[in-house]
Please model this.
Amino acid sequence: MKKFVVHVIPNAHLDPVWLWDYREGLNEGVATCRTILDLMEANPDLTFIRGEAAIYEHIRRTDPATFARILKKIRTGRWDAVGGTWIQPDTNLLDSETLCRHYDVGLRYFREKLGVKVKCAWQADSFGHTAGLPEVLAAGGVENFAFTRPPAEVLPLRHPAFWWRGRGGARILAYRPPIGWYGCERDEIPRRFDQLVPWVKKSPLRNLAMFIGLGNHGGGPSQRLVDDIRAWAKAHPEFDVRFSSLHSFFAALRRELAAPGSPRLQEIRGELNFCMRGCYAAVARFKHAYRRAEHELLSAERTTALLTQTGLAPAADLAGAWESVLFNSFHDILPGSSIERAFDEQCDEVGGVRHSACEAAFRALNHLAGRVRVALPEVAADHPKAVPYLLWNPHLRPVQTCVEVEACVDHRPIGAYKDRPAELPLEVRLNSRPVPHQVIATEHESFVDLAWRKRVVVPVTLPAAGWNVVTLGWVEKPAVPAPPARATGRDRSIRNDFYRITAQPGGRGIQVIHRGKNLFGPRGLQLVTVADNWGSWGSMDENLPGVRLTKEIGRWKIARVAVTETGPLRAALVVRLTAPKAHVDLTFRLTAGTEEVAIDARVFTDLEAARVKLVLPGARSVECEVPAERVRRTTEGEIPVLRWLRARAGLGKKGFALASDVLAAYDLENGDLRVTLARATRYARAENLDQSKEWWRPTTDRGELRERLVLLPPNGPVEQTADLLSQPPLTLQIWENRNGTLPAAGTLARLTPDTVELLALKPAATGAGIEVRLRNPTNRPVRPVLTLAGRRHAPGTVAPGEIATFRLGRSGAKRVRLGD
Model:
């Protein structure tokens, strides 16, 4: 009988940010790799694996000599470059394209800078894994996946190796070590290896991986660990113990599985979750900034790529912004488990991403504006002309929505309307034609007796990847067409053709009536504060009280109600709810002719060891977006989610859909959907909170948080609504330009069918042209068609659930992998 082969895989897991800042983390990467290289010189049989392109790049820039030594070890086969990502990301909370971009940027870096084609993904410490990961890996040609979380007590497996299947046909050989984790303690080797003796008696597999290394803050293998492994191997000749690599291990495992009589492995479909559930909601101030940075960067990249490809604007370099987004998806940054000082700095970095994205889009759209013909209506002498705005739709499908435009209708306040500014007559034109509009409150509260600056809401239908021109001006006899539908507000209530929202001071619930039926029953939509005495990660061992947070503390009531917009295009109701040490302002908006409820939440808390949740009764199951996939869930307890979900009370029963710009965590509890708006815990705390001790320690998310939500019918277009929330039309004041060569309304690109999901449209990684990344969320194959600048591209079929990247150039469309 052949020996059991123990593949000892030395590694040095390094959190670049956690209980330390990024400077310490990255420089520890240099120090660890120098130490490992010296240890490898002293031990010619020692091997080592290292992932994370960001750490390699820091070494290349900081210590070129060490980088050169690493390249030599890679060429000998003893140093195994693995993972294929920029950093080890969280895979439950980042955008679908961000997950794809990790492998797109990372795999290319490994190939170009290290000369390696990575086939083995490596997630040593990430807190669970999205159901979409197999398709992302397959899209990059990655065949194998090793991980350590969730552990066996949370996610039982028949064998340590299994086939992880994606809905698009991906089939990834996955492995979780049955003994130990990714690291080890200094004295642990004999005890851990002794567990092999009873374990192999029940194992059908003869190749086993054992990960060793001191971990977390670098470290890696030490001479003591090496010596202890050799000593154990000598004492147990029935085992073939060898220093190995991740690629070598998976190659051996695949040979074993291909041999006659090999065991049949379990096949798993769906997500590998859940663990460390507190992280789904920890440090919302960073999560919100990060999510908005992702969205704004994607919008700016798409905008600049389209305008560059069509010759309307110069290229924009957003590579550095993407490196920041990828770095900040790290599994101790995005999940919210690092120290306060580190989060201060990481918030600054994602703020820089947002500014870079805004500046790139601003410059590109100004180039477009310089080509668009803008002819303002003629006015009498010494009367101000209307103010023109460019409306840009970054989506590759038409968008019907309302936009808000605010302008100074004259360079100085209009004296004739002093003390009666509401009487100032306005006219709004869309592509030179008068359109309905509604005057709403300006963003400022200065000089309220003066007629000067005005803000309006305007219904528009914007062409795919295109623009319109809207003008706002003071006109004494304006043309104001009547709106085809109306929204109204009065007496603490607002309504349109589909919904009615009411609230009464002193009550607890906000009543939402949809098509004559009370959507949330007599309880209405309400808030609850629940006790959450768990640290940053929540219950680390999936303890039930830490998974299901059911102890209510405090009592919320409606304190104030005001109708702030009365129609005819939009009505708004502001409801202030209060509880001990917290208050929340919810602004509900109904738009004429639109079957949705927009909700702006402004949350202020001074809580500790607690969560504020928005409660929507009538939900026992959800279908929701997760990175690169959508899943159905009925599990109670804290759950991660991306931008949208559909909830139902049961088969054939009523339900609703919900979209958000920063949605991250919810739970199902006794038929309620409860969305976490704020979580007050401590920074980087593992243990449960004892508020009587060290009371002076900072608490996360004290202060104000803001987010936007939209409530729709269960079969409503929640995916498209989420797209609009995350990447709204861009509004830019421009100038009169009668010499422009482009019309006041135009389109650059169109993607069909609308069911296909556009993940990215960006400049090609190599050469000229652009790359388009698509995902098919449906259950049927689709043949997408992209029309760009009048040229039709039909790149091929995309299977259900599959992710496909196409490079479009002069010679047509070519399918490529992530990292090509």
